[in-house]
Amino acid sequence: MKVTPKMEFWSAFKKVMFYDYANFTGRARRSEFYWYYFALIVIFACFAMLCHIPALFFCYVNDVEKITLFSDILVWFYVVYKIITLIPSMAVSARRLHDIGYSGLASLFCLIPFLGSAIIMIICMKDSQVDENKYGISPKYFDEEEEFCYM
């Protein structure tokens, strides 16, 4: 058995957002799962900083109406951002749980306030099952005569 190379930052994000947007079947490696969530955090942090720079400027010139406008825009963009990323986040979580042998329904632990997401993140640290399981072949391990492909 050989091990496929780990996914990189943007390739994991593109795969989850564009190729496997609502794919709840199959398996996902740890690198795909964690790089995707890291990309979500980085994108939101950049967006939040960009939205706060004008707010700081208008605070300096003491224009309260424009500060309120920018904070409202930030809230609306955050809501749209969460709606767009909700389905792929659930899908990659289900595929990651499939990869370690759990049902995708275990991702419902995220509904537990505060602890749920931490439980899923800890469970998803387990290594992939080497052999094929009921959710498909392993994306990490492959036989020497097979070729691997991320997409």
Descriptive account of the structure:
There is one protein chain. This protein is mainly alpha-helical and 151 residues long. It has one domain (2-142). Helix content is 58%, strand content 3%. It has a two-stranded antiparallel ribbon with strand order 1-2. The two termini are 20 Å apart.
Helix content: 55-70%
Mean pLDDT, all residues:
83
Describe the main β-sheet briefly. 2 strands, antiparallel
> So how many helices?
4
Strand order of the largest sheet: 1-2
Low-confidence region ranges = none
For the record, give the distance between the C-alpha atoms at the N and C termini, rounded to a whole number. 20 Å
Number of distinct beta strands:
2
SSE order: EHHHHE
Structural class: mainly alpha
Give the total of domains.
1
Strand content: under 5%
Shape: elongated
Q: Rounded to an integer, what's the Rg over CA atoms?
A: 19 Å
